[in-house]
């Protein structure tokens, strides 16, 4: 049996049930905050005034963070063994997933990168090759 790619390689120590619940709640809060950040980024970048004030180099940095978020969520969602293990622990009624994080980060990423690619501002035109690189596998 292969180990989950998201699992740590270190031996696990016994965790008290109260600590386990606290850790689990912290993870849930982090996931919710991550999704809120993605959604806020999406909403802000829909605003032309906000979009035009952010230099393309900084937008690319932001897109890199969104890409990382997308890839993490996609990897988590693909790891059924890990998701089943989390569900079996009993803290959740349904199989855990990061589908909203995956889809919202991907949608925002594609939306902004397409917008950057078609942007006619000189600074944006200079960054087109980097925008294309983000789409490359």
Describe this structure in words.
This protein is mostly helical and 137 residues long. The protein has one domain (18-135). Helices cover 74% and strands 0% of the residues. The chain has 7 helices and no strands. Helix 3 (56-78) runs antiparallel to helix 5 (99-118). The protein is elongated. The relative contact order is 0.14. The mean pLDDT is 88.
Characterize the quaternary organization of these chains: single chain
| Protein structure class | mainly alpha
Give the helix proportion (percent range).
over 70%
Unreliable sequence segments: none
The N- to C-terminal Cα distance equals 29 Å
Order of helices and strands: HHHHHHH
Number of structural units classed as domains: 1
Count of alpha and pi helical runs: 7
Report the sheet-strand fraction.
under 5%
Give the radius of gyration: 19 Å
Tell how many strands the DSSP assignment holds.
Answer: 0
> What would the average pLDDT be, to the nearest integer?
88
| Shape annotation | elongated
Main sheet makeup: none
């Amino acid at each position: 049996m292969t180990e989950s790619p998201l699992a740590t390689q270190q031996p696990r120590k016994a965790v008290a049930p109260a600590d386990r619940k606290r850790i689990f709640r912290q993870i849930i809060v982090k996931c919710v905050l991550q999704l809120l950040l993605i959604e806020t980024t999406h909403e802000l970048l829909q605003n032309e005034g906000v979009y035009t004030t952010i230099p393309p180099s900084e937008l690319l940095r932001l897109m890199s963070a969104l890409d990382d978020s997308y890839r993490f969520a996609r990897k988590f969602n693909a790891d059924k063994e890990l998701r089943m293990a989390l569900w079996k622990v009993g803290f959740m009624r349904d199989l855990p997933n990061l589908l909203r994080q995956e889809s919202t980060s991907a949608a925002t990423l594609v939306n902004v990168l397409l917008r950057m690619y078609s942007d006619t501002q000189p600074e944006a035109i200079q960054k087109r090759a980097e925008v294309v690189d983000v789409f490359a596998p």
